[in-house]
Amino acid sequence: MANTNSAKKAMRSNERRRLRNRIHVGRARTEVKKARKALETGDVPMATEAVRSASKWLDHAASKGSIHKNNAARRKGRLMKHLAELQAQAK
After folding, report:
1. Three-class secondary structure of residue 10 per DSSP
2. How many domains does the chain have?
3. How far apart are CA 56 and CA 76, in angstroms?
4. Among 17, 29, 10, 14, which Cα is nearest to 64's?
5. What's phi and psi for 56, nearest 5 deg?
6. Stretch (H or E) spanning 5
7. d(Cα 50, Cα 1) in Å, to the nearest integer?
8. What span, in angstroms and rounded, lies between the C-alpha atoms of 83 and 65?
9. Residue 28 belongs to domain with CATH number
10. Residue 37 zone, left/alpha/beta (φ > 0; ψ -120 to 50; rest)
């Protein structure tokens, strides 16, 4: 348990940040799951829209500092790679 006043304040601040980060990270995670599910179905237009939405929310979480920008870029890259494979199969 925190002993000093500054440590107690840091605990309060960290809790507020944690709750705020959960909103952004949770939304991004949900959108990524939706995108993966859309990619598995093989429906190109639906998958394209889902990946676009996931990309938007990953960028939003990164801009708020909830996740690192490289983490968002890596996840977006993986989704885009799967989308490109799906589009190539559709042709």
Report:
1. helix
2. 1
3. 9
4. 17
5. -60, -45
6. helix 5-41
7. 44
8. 26
9. 1.20.58.110
10. alpha
Residue 10 belongs to domain spanning: 5-90
Q: What is the pLDDT along the chain (91 residues), one digit of tens a residue?
A: 789 999 999 999 999 999 999 999 999 999 999 999 999 999 999 999 999 999 999 999 999 999 999 999 999 999 999 999 999 998 8
DSSP sequence for 14-73: HHHHHHHHHHHHHHHHHHHHHHHHHHHHT-HHHHHHHHHHHHHHHHHHHHTTSS-HHHHH
Does the pTM of the predicted model rise above 0.85? yes
Let me know if 48 is exposed, middle or buried by CB neighbors in 10 A (0-12, 13-18, 19+): middle
